[in-house]
């Protein structure tokens, strides 16, 4: 009776039910109290989504029945029934080559482990996957307990011990879950026993209900938007934001927010010279609205920085209207201290770009830095493509001239890197700024990222195709803090080559045969 008439009198909730997606809510015939219109709309929306899921599942069942009847009557099975009417199986897709094998992801109660090269090897289970797992387990438990009363037993879910998950793009999501359950017998002699069961599940895709059948002419659409015609007046402002990405390279520059590019540096003159050459082509010649600030660290007398100063002076002579500043600093290199010093030169409404000398970038990246950074709300953390060692990836052949080649062989997305940042000065101060006590390589970016999240700002992360981190040998100082040293070694190991190519090199070296990927 208590479960049928569900009452929610939690303190200060006033009828708000945080988790509608549980078996108690599904079994109830009334929910009390439920008097606020906003909560009623939320509940109604959830019940409609449940109804949609049930109808989608019913369509899958009908497609299966239709396919079965077509086979029994020796009639042709429709294409739709062939795709949607297949019975659950993990063997729908038959790979013909090794590269076509769909990999499984391993998961525990809190963590997800992935072998995919575009994902971190270990990460916390995000909210989307957590919701999907909870929904899957809920449906499994409802099926198990469907006839619990007549069987005189009830089975409760405790936790997922471990599991595997993968997505078949043509069919659906597949799970293998090791479930810890609690078996409760209430007929005869009462008994409560913990049990473990494996569940092999497939969540099939149903029929798509929306499909775009007409090809859009993007150029004519953008022209119509930019013309501010009445027919597009209701969407032109929002779509102009998207169309600006396409025209970022052709934009003049002085009609946009000025970006202050901060680059901390010590030594590495050749790398700095390459950075300035890229800066000239990307910013100085097109007259981009930017200001470059070099924070130059030097040890002892500072004689090692004279060449850097002369190079900056040469560019200032060639481009007298360009804004370029060099801030000299003495002592041990500290990226956080350098960026803190550089940002202190500007007012609170300044848009800052924390950059590294190892990067090369294009003009479209600067436009996305402006567009994706919202003062008081959002900080842009681009995910940078980092090159592998060209000596390994090219097999001794000379490297290509184009550094903007994105493939699994040439490099990887640095998902765990937070050093490149677009942020307003006021937001940097509000988050607490850099920890200037951190010396040497790394860790200051992760510290600031955590502060940004805790301050209530929204970090915006996305793969950035306008920036490439050029490969350079990594030297890890054993005198670093143990946590920094471990991070440095991990970063160094990730830059040699992809795991696939390293494995092939190992096989070639130790087995004496060349492993041909295309024939395997």
Automatic annotation (TrEMBL):
It is found in: Golgi apparatus, Golgi stack membrane. It is a single-pass type II membrane protein. One of its GO terms (cellular component) is Golgi cisterna membrane. Pfam families: CHGN (PF05679). Its EC number is 2.4.1.-. Keywords: Golgi apparatus, Membrane, Signal-anchor, Transferase, Transmembrane, Transmembrane helix. Coiled coil: none annotated. One of its GO terms (molecular function) is glucuronosyl-N-acetylgalactosaminyl-proteoglycan 4-beta-N-acetylgalactosaminyltransferase activity. Gene3D superfamilies: Spore Coat Polysaccharide Biosynthesis Protein SpsA, Chain A (3.90.550.10). Belongs to the chondroitin N-acetylgalactosaminyltransferase family. This is Hexosyltransferase. It comes from Camelus dromedarius. The lineage of its organism: Eukaryota, Metazoa, Chordata, Craniata, Vertebrata.
